[in-house]
Each structure stands twice: as structure tokens, then as C-alpha cells.
Amino acid sequence: MSDFLVRDNREMRARIFDFLKDPLYEPNYYMGVREQRAVTTQRVKAYMSQRFYDIADYVEDPLRFCAGLECPMFADFSTAVKMGVHATLCGGTIASLGNPAQKAKYLARMDTLELAGCFGMTELGHGSNVMGIRTRAEYDPATREFVITTPDDDASKYFIGGAAETAHICCVFAQLTVAGRDQGVHVFVTPLRDASGRVLPGVRIQDNGAKMGLNGVDNGQIWFDGVRVPRDALLDKYGGVDEAGTYRSPLPSATARFGVMVGGLTTGRVLLAQGAVDAMKIGLTIALRYAFCRPQFGDALIGDYVTHRRRLLPALAETYALQLAMQRLKAVYKLRDMKRGKEVHLLSSGLKAAATWRRVQVL
Questions:
Q1: Per-residue b/e over 175-201, b at no fewer than 16 CB within 10 Å?
Q2: Distance in angstroms (rounded) separating the CA atoms of residues 179 and 34
Q3: Tell me: the pLDDT tens digits for 4-28?
Q4: Which terminus of the chain is less hemmed in, N or C, by CB atoms within 10 Å?
Q5: What is the DSSP pairing of strand 169-178 with strand 117-120?
Q6: pLDDT at 259 > cutoff 90
Q7: CA separation (Å) from 49 to 8, 45, 56, 107?
Q8: Are the beta carbons of 78 and 40 closer than 8 angstroms?
Q9: Alpha carbons 61 and 95: distance in angstroms, whole number
């Protein structure tokens, strides 16, 4: 049954689960925010040092990549989320939108956490409306640099995982202007901190503080005050500025470019949906095992009572159904077929919503 429900990277998953038995990953529910963040960072570093996956697998072996990020969810969600922001949202964006030189510059250093990354899409005044973000990136032909600016507080990058304390670089989504002409949303790999962890000039970061959960993740708010980045900071697979200062793109419109710029969110949806299903598995495994070993009113087990079964068995059936739906999604997702992009988008978006809401109800 396990082989039927989990169809990829079984040997690697077994090695990961064996590694996660390390005492470092034992839960401790009495830590403060600072201590939890420090432990989460230790856990991420220890896990990534095992090289169960490489960030390049985001493109080259997407199921291996997903397996490497799914398994830590069984041990600690803060670790999984912090690593997911670094590897999936930041690293995956570079892997999918960057040119070969950009991948060579960043990905190997991100695999070792020499460079920790975060993902600067969401703004205080713009969440789902990414096309409406207001961070600006204007090309300066005199210096061949982009000048990145936050015009006001609403345009600040908000609740960015990893930004408050640890990220060295950020994939910043900004409205690009070249020679006075708006070219739409593009992504710029922008330094936030130096190697010693000091915030760089022109960058301001505020800690978003404690949250209702996932306190191992250091979310932060970011402002840019005329931060200059070189021409090759723009991830230019689908649009860039040449040495003459001319904007060029293989895609015909800003709308078409926007579609591929946010494509990296799909992998995040796959992982969030699978994480929700896995949380249901964990909760139901505990509840069902307990139901059929705990007696109530004599020798009868609580799992023998119809009312108790009606609480658990429909949830179990739904969990099986959602797990099989995830296998369907992954079978299409791994193909990386642009012609099936809409299908992947619909499946991943729908399953993310269905699985996360159902997880709340089941648990």
C-alpha cells in the first residue's frame, strides 16, 4: 500500500526519515521565538548538508526536489517552510528564470547555504495582485545598473520568510522601466546582507516578530532606497536588457511575461498541498491507533463505537483520495510541458485550497 500511495524516490525518502531521527529534530514546545529560530536554522543547515537534493533539481528532477522538501514536514513545519522559501521560491526562481551564468553564480552557493535566499513578491499593499506591485526597478544606462526603489510603505515587501535575520539575497519582484518605458514585472537577485550578516546600505529590514505558528521562520518587511544592482541581476530568460541598453524579450507582451515570471509559485502549491495531506496522515494515524487500543466501558474499544468511527473513517477516506489526487498532479507536473501549464495551475491551485481547508477540519 505504501508503494502504491508514494510512487517516487522511495529509497531517498527512507534515508531522509532515518536522518530525521537525529535528536536535533525532536520537538520542543517550550522554546521562545529567538531560540526556535536558532534551532530551525540549525536544522535547515544540517538537513541541506546531506544533499538529499540540489536546487538544480527544481528543473532537472522535480519529483526528487519535491520529495526532499516534503519529508521534513513530518518532523518540523518551520524547518520545511524556511527551507522551502530558500530552495523553492528563491532558488527555484533562479533555476527556472536565470541564464546559465546566473545559475552557476548562485545555485551551488545556495545548496551549501553560503547564500541564504528569500522571495520578495508580496507587498504590504499587494498580495494576490502581483501585476500591481509598486516596487520599481529603473535601468540606468550610464552605469549599466538597475536602481531598485520602494516608493512608500504600501510597496514594502511584507512578511517575507527568512528576511528578518538570515537571508543574504532576495528574488525581488519589481516593475521594470527601461528608457522611460514600462516593461512589467521582472525578478532581480538583490543582495540584502554581506557574508557576516550585516544589512547592506540602502536596504532596511524590520522583523515581523512572533506569529500564531511557524515561529522558527523569521518573517520580515523590506524597503529599498535606490539600491543599485548590476545588469546581470535581472533574471533574463524571458526578458532582459542588452549591453546597448535595449530591452529584449522572446515573449510578445508584459502579460505573457508575467505568466512565466510567477510560474515558480506552482511548485510551492504542490508542496503546500502535499504537506496538508501529510499532516492529515499524521493526525489520523495517531487517532486510529489510539482508537483501537483504548478500552472504554469495559473491554469495548472506542474504535468499536459507530460514532467514533464516523469521526475518523470518512476523514481517512478523504485522505486517501487527496493523496491519489496528488499523485495525479505530480505525474503531470514532472513533465514540465508548457502545453499543460494551465492543467498544472488548475490542479495545484485547487488541491492546495482543498487539502489545506480539509486538513483544518480533519485535525
A1: bbbbeeeebbbbbbbbbbbeeeeeeee
A2: 46
A3: 888 899 999 999 999 999 999 999 9
A4: N
A5: parallel
A6: no
A7: 22, 6, 15, 14
A8: yes
A9: 12
CA 69 to chain centre: 9
Q: Which residues pair with 297 in a beta bridge?
A: none
Q: Please name the helix (run of DSSP H) or strand (run of DSSP E) that holds residue 172, with its range, or none.
A: strand 169-178
The CA-CA-CA angle for residues 320, 323, 329, to 5°, reads 145
SS3 call for 223: strand
Hey, what's the cell of 275?
504537506
Identify which of 195, 217, 192 has the alpha carbon closest to the alpha carbon of residue 205.
192
With left for phi above 0 and alpha for psi between -120 and 50, is residue 123 left, alpha or beta? beta
Q: How many CA atoms lie within 13 A of 61 on its CB side?
A: 13
* CATH number, domain 265-362, options 1.20.140.10, 3.40.50.1820, 1.20.910.10, 3.30.1330.10: 1.20.140.10
**Residue 301 has what DSSP assignment?**
B
Question: What single-letter amino acid sits at 359?
Answer: R
Q: Are 27 and 20 in contact (CB under 8 A)?
A: no
Residue recorded with cell 527568512:
162
- Please report which residue ranges of the chain form alpha helices under DSSP H: 2-5, 10-19, 33-48, 57-60, 62-70, 77-84, 92-97, 100-111, 254-261, 265-291, 306-333, 341-362
Show the cell assigned to 17.
526519515
Rounded Cα distance, 17 and 273, in Å: 20
The C-alpha atoms of residue 258 and residue 185 are separated, in whole angstroms, by 6
Distance of CA 284 to the CA centre of its chain: 26
- Render pLDDT for 213-223 as a digit per residue (tens, 0 to 9): 999 999 999 99
Question: Does the structural domain 2-111 have CATH classification 1.25.40?
Answer: no
Identify the pLDDT of residue 264.
Answer: 74
Tell me the pairing of strands 227-230 and 145-149. antiparallel
**Cα distance between residue 173 and residue 260, in whole Å:** 13
Nearest partner of 222 among 318, 138, 148, judged by Cα: 148
Is the domain spanning 117-253 CATH 3.40.366.10? The answer is no
CA distance 71 to 43: 13
